[in-house]
Structures are given as structure tokens and as C-alpha cells.
Amino acid sequence: MADMLRIVLSVLLPPLGVFFQVGLGVHFWLNVVLTLLGYFPGLIHAIWIIARRPQELVA
After folding, report:
1. How many whole angstroms separate alpha carbon 55 and alpha carbon 8?
2. Which structural domain, as residue segments, surrounds residue 37?
């Protein structure tokens, strides 16, 4: 259920969904750059980050 909320937030503003998933890390800033380059690259990256399992994102 929480993932669906993050995806809806990502459709509105992609970095917002990534922020709620991973915080202010590398993925968030990468998503900000991708969103500035174009809405769809940021959206695709945000959904990819949200769809991944949290253990896979730990560096």
C-alpha cells in the first residue's frame, strides 16, 4: 500500500517518491537531475527505485 502512495507521488513529482523511499541519498539527487533533464527519465527512475526491494538499495 505504501508503495502505491509513493508511485502516485512520483507521477506528480518524481523526486518526491524517491525521497520517501530512500531519503536524501545518491538516488534522490540522481532523480532530481534526471527530472530536470526531462520528466519521463525522472519518472522511470523513480518507479524503478520504488519497485526494487529496500535491501538492494543499501550501499
Report:
1. 22
2. 2-54
How many domains is the chain partitioned into structurally? 1
Q: Are 29 and 18 in contact (CB under 8 A)?
A: no
* pTM for this prediction: 0.82
- The answer to whether 4 touches 35, Cβ cutoff 8 Å, is no
Please indicate, yes or no, if residue 14 is contained in any of the structural domains.
yes
From first to last of its 59 residues, the chain has per-residue pLDDT tens of 777 888 888 899 999 999 999 999 999 999 999 999 999 999 999 999 998 866 565 55
Q: How is 1-59 classified by DSSP, letter by letter? A: -HHHHHHHHHHH-HHHHHHHHH-SSHHHHHHHHHHHH-HHHHHHHHHHHHHS-HHHH--
